[in-house]
Amino acid sequence: MRTARKYCIVPCCTATSKRNPEKLFFQVPRDQKTRFKWCKIVRRNKILWTGPAYICEDHFEVENDVEGWMRYRLLKELGKKTFQLSLKQNVVPHKFDCQFGQKPSNFSTSKRTSLASKKEEIKRKEQMKDPLEVGPSNEASKSSFMS
Question: What are the start-end ranges of the E strands in the chain?
Fold first, then answer.
């Protein structure tokens, strides 16, 4: 039986189960609220499908974030049959080395905040314009300056 290929949905991460067969992949929760939260944290547009989506082990601290990690590792080293790993409750992806040069995701950022910052930037640029530039507001000040 052929297994489905898994790939990490974190932008800039190139991990796939074909390229990295030993790498662990954790399924993104199917619960809409939790799935949306995970997508926002990893900077991924909301995933609209309800099928399986995965995030690779690179975005977790497996020693701390995975249930039964030490037992799993020991069994694997001994060549024994292993078991399906699962993340501890309330664990979310939190390591994003593949997204170097980007600011960390801020889960509380809203569109209004970015709109306000854009307006402030426009105001600053307008204030930095040359005061001698001809325009409706400074035409009078230019003529008084020249005389």
Answer: 25-27, 54-56, 66-67, 86-87
Q: Supply the DSSP symbol for 13.
A: -
d(CA 44, CA 27): 15
Q: Between the CA atoms of 88, 94, 98 and 102, what dihedral angle is there, to the nearest 10 degrees?
A: 170
pLDDT (tens, 9 = 90+) of the chain, 147 residues, equals: 567 789 999 988 999 999 999 999 999 988 888 888 888 888 887 666 678 899 999 999 999 999 999 999 999 899 998 888 889 988 999 988 876 655 555 544 334 445 666 666 676 667 666 555 555 555 454 444 554
Rounded CA-CA distance 107/36 in Å is: 11
pTM score: 0.62
SS3 23: coil
> How far is the C-alpha of 4 from the C-alpha of 50, rounded, in Å?
16
Nearest Cα neighbor of 65 from 87, 82, 34, 46 is 87
C-beta contacts of 84-87 below 8 A and 24+ residues apart: 85/24, 85/26, 86/26, 87/26, 87/60
